[in-house]
Specification:
With 373 residues, the chain is an all-alpha fold. Helices cover 70% and strands 2% of the residues. The protein has helices spanning 2-9, 13-30, 36-48, 69-77, 82-94, 98-102, 107-112, 115-126, 131-138, 145-155, 160-172, 174-185, 188-191, 204-221, 226-240, 245-267, 273-276, 279-307, 328-340, 347-372; strands at 59-61, 64-66.
Length: 373
């Protein structure tokens, strides 16, 4: 009984705050269906690691140190970048690059939509973060959880937990964040531009060569991103080769779901109250929003710039799909197009831009590592 009272006495008000944060993440996952595969385990993990003297994380007792299971998982799966890379195999197996291969110029929009990364890097430096942490925070703008984890962990940022929570939270909030930004910087006339989809036959050979060639080119341009782009493209090669259908299904479903499950709850080791509840965490959340907003602005404004020279105009909204939040951003753009005009189908164009953003975000992460690492 005495031990029970001592445990209650050990409760810190900051831990209670983390319980509330964990509860909010679980609520958003279940009630609002916002990235439930990640927000639910992250939310539960946040509660798990903030219980007084939690055995899930490492504790120091009189008899010595007792290593917590979540810390073991972190060292085995995140500290060595294993979980993010395995997840990329699953993501690569899910992606159909057909719409992009049918219209390769869409790759330009994926590149333009990474503007928020480099803008946020500058902003983070202005707020006093050192170059390592500023670079890690900026990758929130990749709108790609595994890339954010890989880069922030590789660089050794002390804010890994806040960065991961911000990255996945804003990915879940894409349907809320992007529409007002898009409407603010486009006119009604621009949003009504129709872009008929003219599908082109993409040969099987092209689909097979694409992941191989992209990996080689990226490896030459940005060597530090080879692991990221290589695992992503390996997953896609499994999908497209036509002789590994069972492995492709496993990568898309079993592997991706299992790694996501462990990734989500393992991240919580960096959400212990004494590490997480700092003013810097709020700044990181704010800078993450800045990154997402300026990614969107970069993609849309690039499309508007091209329209100055093109006879056949582009609906600038598709530029917003250049962030890596696949396929949420593409769906948001398609839905906005239908709201403006029920016959304006932008899905295939926005999907093409969205998958190009997946590649561009990985390359941007590699460039950050080249510049800072």
């Amino acid at each position: 009984m005495l031990e029970l009272f001592e445990n209650f006495a050990n409760i810190d008000f900051r831990q209670v705050i983390m319980w509330i944060i964990g509860g909010i993440l679980i609520y958003l996952a279940i009630k609002k269906d916002m990235e439930p595969t990640l927000l639910l385990p992250i939310g539960f993990g946040a509660i798990l690691v903030n219980l007084p003297l939690s055995g899930a994380v490492t504790q120091v007792y009189e008899k010595g140190e007792e290593i917590g299971i979540i810390d073991i998982l972190f060292n085995a799966g995140i500290a060595n970048e294993l979980f993010p890379l395995l997840l990329f195999v699953g993501i690569g197996a899910m992606i159909d690059f057909g719409p992009l291969l049918s219209n390769p110029k869409l790759m330009l929009f994926g590149a333009a939509a990474q503007f928020g990364i480099f803008f946020t890097l500058s902003m983070a430096r202005l707020f006093g973060f050192d170059i390592i942490d500023a670079a890690s925070i900026s990758i929130i703008g990749a709108a790609d959880g595994p890339t954010s984890i890989f880069v922030a962990n590789y660089l050794g940022s002390q804010y890994l937990g806040a960065i991961i929570v911000a990255a996945y939270s804003y990915m879940a909030l894409v349907p809320i964040v992007q529409p007002p930004v898009i409407k603010l910087i486009t006119t009604k006339k621009e949003r009504l531009i129709r872009m008929p989809y003219e599908p082109k036959n993409v040969t099987k050979l092209t689909r097979i060569l694409f992941p191989i060639v992209i990996t080689m080119i990226t490896g030459i341009v940005s060597p530090r991103s080879v692991a990221l782009i290589g695992f992503l493209m390996f997953g896609n090669l499994i999908r497209e080769c036509g002789v590994l259908d069972s492995l492709s299904d496993t990568a898309q479903k079993t592997l991706a779901n299992l790694v996501t499950l462990f990734l989500g709850i393992t991240i919580a080791t960096k959400m212990q109250a004494d590490q997480f509840l700092k003013l810097d965490t709020l700044l990181i959340l704010g800078l993450g929003l800045v990154a997402f907003v300026f990614d969107t602005v970069g993609g849309v404004m690039f499309a508007k710039f091209l329209n100055l020279f093109l006879k056949k105009k582009i609906n600038p909204m598709i530029g917003a799909a250049g962030i890596s939040a696949f396929p949420m951003s593409a769906r948001v753009v398609h839905k906005m197009g239908l709201q403006e005009d029920e016959q304006n189908f932008l899905l295939m164009h926005s999907i093409g831009v969205n998958v190009s953003g997946q590649i561009a975000s990985v390359i941007a992460g590699g460039l950050i590592l080249n510049l800072i690492g």
